[in-house]
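pipeline: protein-struct stage 2 | run 1193 | Phosphoribosyl-ATP pyrophosphatase
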Amino acid sequence: MDYIRNDYETILARKNAKEEGSYTCYLFEQGLDKILKKVGEESTEMVIAAKNGVKEETVGEICDLIYHTLVMMVNEGISVEDVEAVLQKRAEKAGNLKKFHKVDKNS
């Protein structure tokens, strides 16, 4: 998570600094619709790369998706800690699938 946290902090700094020529700043200037469009595009490209079975391409598209998702998070005021908290709660529920699918044969 250190790389993700560092990228998040860099993106946050770019939002506040409005650095000339920065792609990240461009995304913020264009607004949420543009950011979400890029998240959607990168999601689709990741799926296609995975379907094509080329690991290097898939990894690259995953990185692009993570970057654009982080931009969206910064834009929407969602922190890495917010996401980690939900992931932690979900991890605590791990292993509940068998309990969930248990059938009471007497009913």
